[in-house]
């Protein structure tokens, strides 16, 4: 067999493939709804731009020193003392950047309430001028990338009540406050929240992991180890709801753990990893419901009974144990005659800031108004949050057909939350970029930008703040760069960040929040 | 269209010349075109293939092709020094220099980060890495390379071992040095095996440099079959299950149930095999069409009946290299039972380290070593060791496969922490109640996995029958089959992403 014949063979195969590529339609031939025969087109051969914004990801990475674990980051945090930021005007922006930050707070077109229409025709890349961000290069001030928070016109001070509390924590005039970070599976396993919590607690005090479910979703928590006795069961208001649960009292975590009414008191035992900030707590709070009167709850520390609550009437309660010093372990024994529910347990400190991670797998964020209002309000009052963060949208992107419905429904949720927690500001975080394959090429889901617009619109129309995660990470078709990065910043479902990627974007959000806080600080 | 020329000739790190990229096959077609004109002139043939291989390496690794050139020049002259020196001292000096230079290059590019991070962690230091090569280049020639980063040249683990085998074989008198440096350069850099092996021994390959081109019709059919088989394994099976399931689980074990983690582990056993063996199959086929025979690198490894047997079937060129150039020089089995086991463990630990610059690879190598040591003890007392009953054979294969899969926890996991997370999920959070949901939701992935394992475990005679059939059919039928296979493979490559499935557990 001579090489020339081999060459002819390859040429013949190539020619046949070319003929098929020309003959078959570019979008392939559909066999069924789920089955399509595809073939590459001639233009695929000469496609030179894969659409990945790799350089954008490299720029983000080079500007950050995050690792997978925020507690061990060799981090440069510019907010060493408040006021270290100069005003945004003095931050030296790159040539391609838009006007300074104080001129770009509002987006009047969205804030006017014009409905956002969904587009199924494929999103187009954003023009550079539409991207509102500051990319400072001055190493003396802010070195990390910042994508600004957005506010409605005249509502730029919506976060001030929270900033006052932060100030109060520093000065000692405010004892404690907390942030409830709600989200979907994107923030599961403390993703994003962990970095926000650690950085904020470093400045404003506080430690401990905050609210956790009584029945763990993940058996392995970095902050503590858990053992339990008794037949506990987890029930969630989001996802697959248990039909045997006839009520809608699920608490602020939209999930509860059912406690059996057993003679042997079912218990939970926690051993803390005090080497981590999240494992250092001196105060434990339990939010629970007992079905019948004469319930009891016992706290034990080092096998010594420290706090006992007895003869509790049926209904909702919040009990706490305040040790005054960091606990190494704590046990909780429940004596609920006819069973009950634990809505959540909070490991916190007597003073300082708590940041709670409340992930609702599969949720679109439209759960709050459907839960029992009185119970939710009672628990929210006990928690007394200073700020709520709602991070949703990812679960509606692949399937949504009526984006305006989602905008209206989300706005209703925000109105409900406003009634639940008056004077508590809210920051809405939109979805990340999400990819799917179109004719073999990765591209952004068409609904990402409309859903982002809907959430932003709902937030600004409600007088709250919005942070655009999609634009912050690079915008259109930026997700493939996150997946292909080394180490990967997102998983190969092209939707969820890896722990490292989550910390990278969390740092951007943290910087945006601190930049805004710093502006308040300078103005006051 | 104006992008075509720069795309062809300029280095683009996002477009390396991998066998699974269309650009490689265009490159190969051009190589065949020129080769078909000059192949009869032996020296010209070798020089051309050397140049083509350097171009291939330039497209894959940019300026690192200069490292390849350096390795070629240094080992060529060291090989001559070893062979032509009359004094034993110079011979020894030559071989030691070759080993030191090659291992230094490998260590510098591959293990610097591991070394520095380990020292920093152990002694609480903050040593920073400086890429001195980049620094010298910037200082001497005005380039602007990043001096804070050391990138790993593609294939360096392979060609450094290859050149070490050359100089050591000359020292041992097994092979004469190559006469011309271009011939030697061709041996070192031959593009089919440059990126991912097999590691070709000088004694096997160098005689081929001096032979005329010859390829029988049967070998032609065999080469095509290997190429198509390799592409199918790598893209249709390996890439699909990796992107749509395995990579996601290993990136975040805690986000998945124990059952999903376990399935990802078994999936990875298949993926690493089809990936690696598929790539080697293509390399063998591509080389054979140019008239060069590369050694077989895999021999149905998951049919192995014990761990020792596995390592004679898996990455054969590496395990035989480690045996001949590490295990035997350490003493092999000639210094008593204890030293045999010690030598074995050292070989397996270093073999693990060769695979990747991270301690969990060393752990993987060590567990494999322990497996062999334990098996050597077990075989003395095993009641069925010599049984040829099908049930005993099946049991041995089952046990060996599961042990090897178990070791992959440390091979694949992104860190020791994630390896521990995987084990934790499997042992503490298995959630058997969601197995039917998982199997149904990821049915395409599991179907492809089942297909992969089925193909692997079918009797060898079935595969041989298929191969013989392909060899015998007329050339036009071969071409048609090739087109159909590319078509099928493209369906997998362009298939929709498996969406993330929410399992409440």
Sum this structure up briefly.
The complex is a heterodimer of chains A (524) and B (505). By secondary structure, chain A is an alpha+beta fold.
Describe this structure in words.
The complex is a heterodimer of chains A (524) and B (505). By secondary structure, chain A is α+β, with helices and mostly antiparallel strands. In chain A, 27% of the residues lie in helices and 21% in strands. Chain A has helices at 3-23, 42-45, 54-62, 108-111, 160-171, 193-204, 373-383, 403-420, 448-461, 469-472, 479-484, 499-523; strands spanning 29-30, 36-37, 176-183, 210-212, 224-229, 233-236, 255-259, 267-272, 283-290, 295-301, 304-312, 315-322, 329-335, 340-348, 352-359, 387-391, 426-429, 435-438, 441-444, 465-467. In chain A, strands 4, 6, 7, 9, 12 and 14 form a 6-stranded antiparallel sheet that branches. A 5-stranded parallel sheet of chain A has the order 15-3-16-17-20, with helices on both faces. A 5-stranded antiparallel sheet of chain A has the order 5-8-13-10-11, with no helix packed on it. Residues 48-53 and 80-144 of chain A have low confidence and may be disordered. Chain B has 2 domains: 12-123 and 154-210, no CATH class; 217-504, no CATH class. Helices cover 72% and strands 0% of the residues of chain B. Chain B has helices at 4-9, 22-38, 42-61, 65-84, 88-123, 132-141, 156-171, 181-189, 191-194, 202-209, 217-251, 258-289, 307-310, 316-330, 336-355, 359-381, 390-412, 416-428, 435-441, 443-457, 460-472, 475-493. The longest helix of chain B has 36 residues, at 88-123. The mean pLDDT of chain B is 86. Chains A and B meet through helix 1 and strand 18 of A and helix 2, helix 11, helix 18 and helix 22 of B.
């Amino acid at each position: 067999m001579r090489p020339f014949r081999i060459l002819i063979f390859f040429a013949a195969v190539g020619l046949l493939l070319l003929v098929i590529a020309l003959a078959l339609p570019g979008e392939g031939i559909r066999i069924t709804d789920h089955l399509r025969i595809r073939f590459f087109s001639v233009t695929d051969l000469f496609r030179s731009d894969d659409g990945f914004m790799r350089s954008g990801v490299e720029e983000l990475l080079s500007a950050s020193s995050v690792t997978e674990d925020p507690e061990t980051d060799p981090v440069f945090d510019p907010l060493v003392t408040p006021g270290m930021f100069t005003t945004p005007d003095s931050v030296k922006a790159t040539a391609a950047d838009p006007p300074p930050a104080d001129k770009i707070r509002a987006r009047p077109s969205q804030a006017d309430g014009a409905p956002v229409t969904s587009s199924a025709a494929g999103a187009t890349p954003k023009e550079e001028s539409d991207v509102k961000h500051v990319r400072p290069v001055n190493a003396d001030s802010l070195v990390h990338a910042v994508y600004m928070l957005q506010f409605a016109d005249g509502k730029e001070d919506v976060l001030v009540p929270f900033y006052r509390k932060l100030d109060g924590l520093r000065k000692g005039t405010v004892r404690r406050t907390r942030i409830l970070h709600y989200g979907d599976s994107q923030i599961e396993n403390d993703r994003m929240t962990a970095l926000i919590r650690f950085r904020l607690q470093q400045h404003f005090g506080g430690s401990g992991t905050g609210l956790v479910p009584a029945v763990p979703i993940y058996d392995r928590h970095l902050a503590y180890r858990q053992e339990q006795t008794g037949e506990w069961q987890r029930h969630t208001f989001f996802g697959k709801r248990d039909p045997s649960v006839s009520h809608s009292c699920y608490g602020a975590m939209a999930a509860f753990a059912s406690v059996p009414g057993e003679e042997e008191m079912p218990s939970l035992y926690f051993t803390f990893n005090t080497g981590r900030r999240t494992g250092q707590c001196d105060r434990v709070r339990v939010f629970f419901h007992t079905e019948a009167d004469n319930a009891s709850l016992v706290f034990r520390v080092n096998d010594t009974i420290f706090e006992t609550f007895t003869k509790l009437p049926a209904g909702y309660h919040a009990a706490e144990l305040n040790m005054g010093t960091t606990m190494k372990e704590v046990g909780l024994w429940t004596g609920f005659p006819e069973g009950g529910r634990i809505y959540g347990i909070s490991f916190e400190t007597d003073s300082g800031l708590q940041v709670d991670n409340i992930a609702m797998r599969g949720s679109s964020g439209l759960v709050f108004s459907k839960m029992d209002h009185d119970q939710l309000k009672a628990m929210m009052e006990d928690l007394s949050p200073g700020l709520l963060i709602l991070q949703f949208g990812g679960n509606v992107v692949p399937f949504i057909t009526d984006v305006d419905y989602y905008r209206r429904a989300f706005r209703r949720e925000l109105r409900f939350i406003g009634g639940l927690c008056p004077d508590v500001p809210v920051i809405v975080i939109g979805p990340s970029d999400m990819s799917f394959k179109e004719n073999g090429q990765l591209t952004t889901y068409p609904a990402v930008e409309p859903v982002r617009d809907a959430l932003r619109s709902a937030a600004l129309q409600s007088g709250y703040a919005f942070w655009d995660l999609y634009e912050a990470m690079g915008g259109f078709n930026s997700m493939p760069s996150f997946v292909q990065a080394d180490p990967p910043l997102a998983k190969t479902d092209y939707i969820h960040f890896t722990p490292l990627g989550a910390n990278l974007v969390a740092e951007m959000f943290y910087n945006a929040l601190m930049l805004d806080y710093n502006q308040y600080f300078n103005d006051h | 269209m104006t992008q075509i020329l720069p795309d062809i000739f300029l280095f683009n790190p996002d477009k390396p010349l991998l066998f699974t990229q269309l650009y490689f096959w265009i490159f190969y077609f051009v190589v065949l075109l020129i080769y078909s004109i000059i192949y009869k002139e032996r020296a010209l043939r070798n020089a051309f293939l050397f140049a083509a291989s350097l171009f291939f390496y330039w497209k894959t690794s940019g300026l690192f092709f200069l490292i390849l050139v350096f390795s070629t020049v240094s080992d060529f002259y060291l090989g001559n020094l070893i062979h032509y020196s009359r004094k034993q001292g110079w011979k020894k000096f030559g071989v030691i220099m070759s080993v030191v230079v090659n291992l230094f290059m490998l260590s510098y590019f591959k293990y610097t980060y591991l070394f520095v991070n380990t020292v920093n962690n152990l002694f609480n230091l903050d040593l920073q890495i400086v890429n001195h090569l980049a620094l010298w280049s910037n200082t001497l020639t005005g380039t602007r390379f990043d001096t804070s980063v050391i990138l790993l040249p593609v294939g360096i683990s392979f060609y450094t071992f290859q050149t070490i085998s050359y100089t050591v074989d000359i020292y041992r008198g097994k092979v004469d040095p190559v006469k011309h440096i271009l011939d030697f350069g061709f041996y070192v850099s031959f593009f089919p095996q440059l990126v991912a092996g097999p590691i070709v021994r000088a004694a096997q390959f160098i005689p081929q440099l001096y032979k005329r081109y010859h390829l029988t019709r049967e070998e032609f059919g065999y080469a095509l079959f290997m190429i198509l088989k390799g592409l199918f394994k790598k893209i249709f099976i390996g890439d699909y299950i990796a992107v749509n399931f395995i990579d996601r689980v290993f990136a975040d074990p805690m986000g998945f149930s124990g059952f999903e983690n376990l399935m990802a582990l078994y999936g990875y056993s298949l993926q690493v095999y089809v990936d690696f063996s598929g790539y080697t199959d293509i390399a063998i086929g591509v080389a054979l069409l140019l008239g060069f025979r590369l050694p077989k690198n895999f021999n149905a490894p998951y049919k192995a009946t014990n761990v020792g047997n596995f390592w004679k079937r898996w990455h054969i060129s590496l395990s035989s290299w480690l045996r001949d150039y590490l295990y035997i020089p350490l003493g092999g089995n000639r210094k008593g039972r204890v030293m045999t086991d010690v030598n074995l463990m050292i070989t397996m630990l270093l073999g693990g380290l060769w695979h990747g610059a991270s301690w969990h690879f060393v752990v993987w190598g060590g567990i494999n070593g322990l497996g062999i040591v334990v098996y050597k003890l077990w075989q003395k007392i095993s009641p069925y060791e010599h049984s040829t009953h099908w049930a005993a054979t099946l049991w041995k294969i089952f046990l060996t496969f599961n042990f090897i899969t178990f070791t992959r926890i440390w091979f694949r996991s992104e860190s020791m922490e994630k390896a521990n997370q995987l084990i934790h999920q499997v042992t503490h959070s298995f959630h058997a109640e969601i197995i039917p949901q998982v199997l149904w939701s990821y049915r395409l992935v599991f179907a492809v996995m089942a297909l992969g394992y089925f193909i692997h475990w079918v009797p060898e005679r079935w595969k041989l029958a298929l191969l013989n059939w392909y060899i015998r059919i007329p050339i036009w039928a071969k071409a048609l089959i090739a087109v159909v296979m590319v078509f099928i493979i493209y369906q997998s490559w362009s298939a929709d992403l498996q969406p993330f499935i929410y399992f409440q557990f």
